[in-house]
Design brief:
Helices cover 68% and strands 13% of the residues. By secondary structure, the chain is of the alpha+beta class. The protein has one domain: Outer membrane efflux proteins (OEP) (Up-down Bundle). It has a four-stranded antiparallel β-sheet with strand order 1-2-3-4, with no helix packed on it. α5 packs parallel to α9, α7 packs antiparallel against α8 and α8 runs antiparallel to α9. The longest helix has 68 residues.
Length: 435
């Protein structure tokens, strides 16, 4: 198959794969991504954060339950008593004591409720962070898959170009030796060959970098790079206008949702700080003490105490006021970060839409350029055979075609990545968009 026909077949297959909803989406890639969304360290870290948030809520809810305290001691107690009116006394006993108490908070004016509310919001924030980690990992892995497949194809184009120029150079050199060619054409062919070799080296370097990126994400590299599975992206999920993308991004983007939850958490901290700093705590408690040979008194002694008490601690350094002001400032900072995040996501959404439109137009024009370059090269080769074209024209056409093929291939890959970026900024990038 000629270079031109091979390129057309590859490009057509690539475009169809990127733009159509493929019912025959590769199960192998889907399974690999499903596994990565569980086992990748980035996901495991986010999952551990979620587990920690759930445990912290259990800690916060402990404020609703009674606290049991048990103290037991045994020792030697010596007491010496001297009174001017009586005879001095002295005792030494092996005293034993067990104290058991249970305390239940009755009212703390919302301090515990605010703590539990903040812990619940922290769980929601960790869940959103896990969702964000999965979406970003999907974007990175699919981009790496597409980039690696494109790098393989581009290196193939450049290798074909080098081989073709090498063959043309050898043929022209043979003509010169027979006396029917020109030495200047041979030199020009060698110049083109050097350029083709340099392009092949650059393409090989780009492939090495693509492999490194792939390995960093997938932890392995396929044995056959030419058999890489290309993801199929559902065009039906791409909105038809920039305004729709912006609207969905502002509503569903995980970064915005996470920032909003942080602002709510900061608001609950204000309530907790106020209740803890400016309100008392009312608690009920029951105590039972078992004593033996304590306080210089032989024998056993039992004490029972049931009470309701109010406790209010106030630091004279006005720490309650400082804590409350700090909570209010943290809440204001969280709200400002939320507004800034919304501005950033809106910008990303608009840029994602523009990049998609640019990538689509660019891919169309570059594909057309590659087709024109292919037709020119075919005619130039025929005219060269008839003696109507110089070798320089053919070599220039060869270089132009390969460059156009590589650019068109890269452009088609950019379209696919741009679609993934749009879905990611909208907050809907998951495995379902590939099926």
């Amino acid at each position: 198959m000629s270079v031109e026909l091979k390129f057309k077949a590859i490009l057509l297959g690539t475009v169809l794969t990127f733009s159509l909803c493929g019912t025959a989406y590769a199960a192998g890639l889907s399974d690999t991504l499903s596994q990565l969304l569980v086992t990748h360290e980035r996901i495991k870290a986010a999952q551990f954060d979620l587990d920690a948030a759930r445990s912290n809520k259990g800690v916060a809810e402990g404020g609703y339950f009674p606290t049991i305290s048990l103290t037991a001691n045994v020792g030697n107690e010596k007491i010496y008593t001297q009174n001017p009116l009586t005879t001095p006394t002295q005792s030494s006993m092996a005293q034993r004591e067990v104290d058991l108490s249970i305390t239940q908070t009755l009212f703390d004016f919302g301090a515990t409720a605010a703590t539990v509310g903040g812990a619940s919001l922290a769980i929601n924030q960790a869940e959103v962070a896990l969702m964000l980690a999965k979406q970003n990992l999907l974007l990175d892995t699919l981009t790496a898959q597409l980039d690696l497949a494109s790098a393989v194809r581009i290196l193939d184009y450049q290798t074909q170009s080098e081989t073709s120029v090498q063959r043309q150079t050898e043929l022209e050199n043979a003509r010169v030796q027979r006396g029917s060619g020109f030495s200047t054409d041979v030199l020009q062919a060698k110049t083109q060959l050097a350029g083709a070799q340099a392009a092949r080296v650059r393409a090989n370097g780009a492939l090495r970098q693509a492999i490194n990126r792939y390995r960093a994400l997938f932890h392995s590299v396929p044995d056959d790079l030419n058999a890489l599975e290309l993801p199929s992206i559902m065009d039906s999920l791409i909105p038809e206008s920039e305004s729709i993308i912006v609207e969905k991004a502002l509503a569903d983007n995980p970064q915005i949702r996470a920032s909003a939850l942080l602002a709510k958490i900061a608001n609950t901290e204000i309530a907790r700080s106020f209740a803890s700093g400016y309100r008392p705590v009312v608690a009920a408690s029951a105590q039972q003490k078992y004593k033996r040979d304590v306080a210089g008194t032989l024998g056993k002694k039992n004490e029972t105490l049931v009470k309701v008490e109010m406790t209010y601690d106030f630091n004279m350094g006005l720490t309650a006021s400082s804590t409350l002001e700090a909570s209010k400032s943290s809440h204001a900072a969280a709200n400002s970060r939320l507004k800034y995040t919304r501005d950033q996501i809106e910008e990303q959404a608009r840029n994602a839409w523009q990049n998609l439109q640019t990538a689509r137009d660019n891919a169309e024009f570059l594909s057309n350029q590659a087709n024109i370059s292919s037709e020119f090269l075919g005619l130039a080769r025929k005219e060269r055979t008839l003696g109507q074209r110089s070798l320089i024209d053919v070599l220039a056409g060869e270089t132009s075609l390969i460059n156009a093929q590589a650019a068109a291939d890269r452009a088609s890959t950019d379209v696919a990545i741009a679609k993934l970026t749009v879905l990611n900024v909208m907050g809907i990038l998951d495995l379902s968009v590939l099926q």
